[in-house]
Amino acid sequence: MIKIMDLHKSFGTTPVLCGVDLEIETGETMVVIGQSGSGKSVLLKHLIGILKPDKGTITIDGLEITRLAEDGLQRILRKFGMLFQSAALFDSLTVGENVSFGLERYTDHSPVETRRIVAESLDKVGLKGIEGLMPYELSGGMKKRVGLARAIAYGPEIILYDEPSTGIDPIRADAINDLINDLKRDLHVTSVVITHDMVSSYKVADRIAMLYEGRIIEIGTPAEIQSSSNPIIQQFIHGQARGPITDR
Amino acid sequence: MKQHPKVPLLQGALFQLGEVGILLGKTLRNMFRRPFEKRIFIQQLEEIGARSLPVISLTAAFGGLVFALQTYIGLHRYVGVGSEAYGGPVISLGLAKELIPILVGLMVSGRVGSAMAAEIGTMKITEQVDALLSLGADPNRYLVVPRTLASVLMLPCLTLYGDIIGIACAFVYNTYIMGVNRVVYLQNTLMYLELWDVASGLFKAVVFGLLIATIGCWQGLKAEGGAEGVGRATTRTVVIASIAILIVNFFLSKALPSTI
C-alpha cells in the first residue's frame, strides 16, 4: 500500500504540491489526472525518491521512504518499475541492453534467461526482434513501448506510468491499456498512471484522482468521477475550453 | 529562460565549491564499492586515452618545438655562441614539470571534460539519470566513478607520452635544424634531468584528471533547461576546468619539492 500524506514541494518560489493526500491500495490501478504542469510527474518522482519533499511523508508497505538513506532507497526501488514520459531510454545502449538493465541489477538470472525475458517483455509491448536496434532508430511510440518493456522486465510490484499513451497511435495505446490491465490481473501489480487521456483513464482505472492547484480535489471510481458535481472535474474530463479552470 | 535567484558572489562561489566537494567525496567513496561499471570504465579509457593521442601529439610536438626555439634564441643571445647545447635540461625540465602537464590538462578538459558535461547533461534533461535511479543504478557509481577513474589513470599516461614527444621534438629542432652538438645536448639532458622532474609532472596530471572529470560530471549533473542548459554546462566545464588547472598548477609547483 502506498500512503502519501500532506506532501509539499516547491521549486524556488513556485509551489507545485501543496499538501497532497493519497492512498493507493495494493493491486489497485490509480489514475491521476490533471492539467499540464499541475505537478503529476513531480508527484510520481517523489514515489521513487528522485525528488525529496519539502514536507510530508510517503509510506510504501509501512516503510517511510522519505526518510530513507540512499542505500535503503535503492532496496525499496526494486519494487518499482517506471515508464517515463519521454521514455528515457539510454542512448548509448541497444534496445536489448536497455530492457535488461534493471534485470541485470535486480536479479540473478543467467544471460540466456535474461535474453529470454527481454524478448518476452518486448513481445508483450508488440515489439519483437528489435533487441539489436539503437534508440535513435526507433520512432517516438516505439521508444515509449521499449520504456514500458524495460519497466516490466524484472517483475516489479508497483509500476508508475507517466503518460503511457502520449505519442502512440490509438490502437497501440489501447494495447498498452490492455497490458496495464493484464499486469494487474495476472501479477497483482499496483499501478499509478498519470495521464490526460480520459478514454485510457476509464479503461484502466480502479479509481481516479484529480490533482488541481497542488492538491487532490476529488477521488473516486471512473463512474463517480464522470458523475461528479464539481465543475472543475467536469470541465477537465470533457475537455472544455471554457469553465472554472480557464476562467480563473 | 529560468531566472536564478541572485546570491552574493562569494556565497555563490562557496556554495558551488561545496557542491563539487560533496560530489568528489561521494565519488571517492563509491570507487571502493560494488558494482564496478567495468564496461563504461573501458569505454572511457579509450575515449580519454586513445582518442586523445592525435591532439596530444600535435600539442606536445609544437609545445616542445616552440620551447626549444625560444631557449635557443635566449642562450644564443644572452649567454653566447656554443651555450645552446646546455638548453637540453632547461627544455626537458620545463616541458616535463610544467608545459606538458598543463597542455595535456587543457586539451583534455576541452575535448573530454566538455564531452562528459554534454553527455551527462543530455542524460539529465532527457530523464535518463532519473531512469538510472529507478532501475537501481546509482548515477554516481554508473556515470561519475568510471569517468573519474579513467581520467585519473589516463592523464598521467598522456602526459608521459606528451613528455616524450615534446622532448624529442625539442631535441630534433636544436640538433638537426639549429646544428647544436647533439652529444653535449643529450649528455646534459641526461645528467641534469631527474626522474622526480618527470614524476612531479605526472603527479600534477593525476590531480588535473581528477579536476577535469569532477568538474565535467558536476556540470553535467546540474544541467537544466534543455539544449541551452547543456550548452552552458559544456562551456562552463571548459572554462572552470581550465582556470582550475592553471591555479592548481601554480600551488602544486610551489608545494612540490623541486628535487628529492
Short structural description:
The complex is a heterodimer of chains A (248) and B (260). Chain A has helices at residues 40-47, 70-77, 95-106, 111-124, 140-152, 170-187, 198-204, 222-226, 231-238, and strands spanning 2-11, 14-24, 29-33, 55-60, 63-64, 80-83, 158-162, 190-194, 207-212, 215-220. Chain A has 248 residues and is an alpha/beta fold.
Keywords, separated by commas or semicolons:
heterodimer; A: 248 residues; alpha/beta; six-stranded mixed sheet; four-stranded antiparallel sheet; B: 260 residues; mainly alpha
Layout of secondary structure:
The complex is a heterodimer of chains A (248) and B (260).
Chain A: E1 2-11, E2 14-24, E3 29-33, H1 40-47, E4 55-60, E5 63-64, H2 70-77, E6 80-83, H3 95-106, H4 111-124, H5 140-152, E7 158-162, H6 170-187, E8 190-194, H7 198-204, E9 207-212, E10 215-220, H8 222-226, H9 231-238
Parallel strand pairs in A: 3-8, 3-9, 6-7, 7-8
Antiparallel strand pairs in A: 1-2, 1-4, 4-5, 9-10
Helix pairs in contact in A: 3-4, 3-5, 4-5
Chain B: H1 9-30, H2 38-48, H3 53-79, H4 87-125, H5 128-134, H6 139-177, H7 182-192, H8 195-221, H9 226-255
N-end to C-end Cα span of chain A = 36 Å
Q: How many strands in all of chain A?
A: 10
Most residues in contact, chain pair and counts? A-B, 24 and 16 residues
Determine the strand fraction of chain B and express it as a percent band. Answer: under 5%
Structural class of chain A: alpha/beta
In percent terms, what proportion of residues of chain A is strand?
15-25%
Looking at the chains present, what oligomeric state does this protein adopt?
heterodimer
Radius of gyration of chain A: 18 Å
Shape label of chain B: elongated
How many angstroms separate the termini of chain B?
A: 54 Å
Could you give the order of strands across the largest sheet of chain A? 6-7-8-3-9-10
| Helical stretch tally of chain B | 9
Low-pLDDT parts of chain A are none
- Radius of gyration computed on alpha carbons of chain B: 21 Å
Query: Which residues of chain B form runs of ≥5 with pLDDT under 50?
Result: none
Report the sheet with the most strands of chain A, covering strand number, pairing sense and barrel closure.
Answer: 6 strands, mixed
Give the helix proportion of chain B (percent range).
Answer: over 70%
Order of helices and strands of chain A: EEEHEEHEHHHEHEHEEHH
